[in-house]
TrEMBL record:
Its main location: membrane. This is TRAP transporter large permease protein. It comes from Sagittula stellata (strain ATCC 700073 / DSM 11524 / E-37). Residues 9-416 form the TRAP C4-dicarboxylate transport system permease DctM subunit domain. The chain crosses the membrane at residues 6-35, 47-66, 99-124, 136-163, 169-193, 214-235, 241-259, 271-293, 313-343, 355-381, 387-412. Keywords: Cell inner membrane, Cell membrane, Membrane, Transmembrane, Transmembrane helix, Transport. Belongs to the TRAP transporter large permease family. It is a multi-pass membrane protein.
Length: 428
């Protein structure tokens, strides 16, 4: 009965437009009162500070800043031009260009929404002009945007690492193979669709022009290489790599002639807003996690699920369903904050690896944003391109089925995720 007033209060706050981080914090405080644990609230500030005072989480605002600078500094055009030179000559070439651009963007910003918006504004009109339907152009844009947070650097992985006190470097390295597999699967799906619907072949770019564009895009393409190689070979921590990424982003902007004080100021403002919203959310989650630990909620949940038969592969399937649905309805940081502290410790207690679970959860949440009826990436692409939402959703269905197949392979083949972290010495 004590839970009912808390649920009513939380629903009233949510309907009233309260910030979700405030809602989580308020509900957690009330839960301390309901559970007669108010004496433990004196330690809550210390728990909040301990939860966010992590060296690895310092990399998050730096990676956000690097992505913001690069998005404003001419990097986008250089990457798209290179992708056009490499892939446009193939049948359905602009679809391949769209996917390859998302792979390039993944190493720059690591944001699916930024990827979807940028590509919708540039490649969707180009695809439509070349004879593709606007629905298909929007579909391949939305589907490929999920690659962004899978291939490092990834803000989502940093957030997960902070929640579970897991190595961000290991998560970054673990995302490389799944990201490549996802990209290859999308290339295959686009090639099949191109032959089925007779999509056009683009103009063949001379070898000299390909080389010129590759050299021009070098400042942009070399940044992910520097970041990943530095982390893999132990030269830099993720936080140090994030600082290097910011310096490289500024240098790239200077090379492309689009760096200015206005660019830096706007990038800093956007970084402060995004970082602040994430940190306040982490603070609210810290209080909830503190109470969950006192009440032994993960252990009770694990026992209940085992009693219902949800263990092993069945629990992994349940985890996939929960996070896929959460990705459809909630913002990714919110879904992580609400569900990871409860469900991931349960999976670990059943023998799952936290690095593997982290990658599976990231992929699930990303597929949620391209799954109707509330797929956020579909909404962004529809708004930017002007294509009808349900037309894009229908055209994206074949890509989504392929991506769900990749998700299942990653879920039940942990070695695909853990191979590189184990090789680099991050996993035993």
């Amino acid at each position: 009965m004590t839970a009912l007033p808390i649920l009513i209060f939380s629903a009233a706050l949510l309907l009233g437009g309260a910030v979700l981080a405030h809602l989580i914090g308020a509900a957690s405080i009330l839960s301390f009162v309901a559970a007669d644990r108010t004496r433990f609230l004196a330690a809550a500030p210390q728990r909040i500070i301990a939860h966010i005072d992590l060296f690895s989480i310092m990399s998050m605002p730096l990676f956000i800043l690097a992505g913001e600078i690069m998005n404003r500094a001419g990097v986008t055009k250089a990457l798209i031009d290179l992708a056009m030179a490499l892939m446009a000559r193939l049948k359905g070439g602009l679809g391949h260009v769209n996917i390859l651009t998302s792979v390039f963007f993944a190493g720059i910003s690591g944001s699916a929404m930024a990827d979807a918006a940028a590509v919708s504004n540039t490649l969707v009109p180009a695809m439509r002009k070349s004879g593709y339907s606007v629905q298909y152009a929007g579909a391949v844009t939305a589907a490929s945007s999920v690659i962004g947070p899978i291939i490092p650097p990834s803000i989502i992985m940093i957030f997960y690492g902070a929640l579970m006190n897991t190595s961000v470097a290991a998560l970054f390295i673990a995302g490389i193979v799944p990201g490549i597999i996802m990209a290859v699967a999308l290339f295959g799906a686009n090639a099949w669709m191109a032959h089925r619907h007779d999509h056009p072949t683009g103009e063949k770019v001379p070898a000299r022009e390909v080389l010129r564009r590759a050299v021009y895009a070098l400042p942009a393409t070399v940044i992910p290489v520097i970041i990943l190689s530095g982390i893999v070979f132990g030269v830099m921590t993720p936080t140090e790599a994030a600082g290097v990424a910011v310096c490289c982003a500024i240098l790239a902007g200077i090379i492309y002639g689009q760096m200015s004080w206005d660019t830096i100021i706007k990038s800093l403002e956007r970084t402060a807003i995004l970082s602040g919203s994430i940190f306040i959310l982490l603070s609210g989650v810290a209080i909830f996690g503190y109470l969950a630990g006192l009440e032994k909620l993960p252990t009770l949940l694990a026992d209940a699920l085992i009693g219902l038969g949800f263990e092993g592969w069945k629990y992994l399937l349940l985890l996939n369903v929960v996070f896929l649905v959460a990705g459809m309805f909630l913002e990714v940081p919110v879904a992580l904050a609400l569900l990871v502290p409860l469900l991931v410790p349960t999976g670990i207690s059943m023998g799952a690896d936290p690095i593997h679970l982290g990658i599976v959860i990231v992929v699930n949440l990303m597929l949620g944003i391209v799954t109707p009826p509330f797929g956020a990436a579909l909404l962004v692409v529809s708004a930017v391109s002007g294509a009808p939402y349900w037309g894009i959703a229908k055209a994206a269905a074949p890509f989504l089925l392929v991506q769900l197949g990749v998700l299942l392979i990653l879920t039940f083949t942990p070695e695909l995720t853990l191979f590189l972290p184990r090789l680099a010495g991050f996993v035993e």
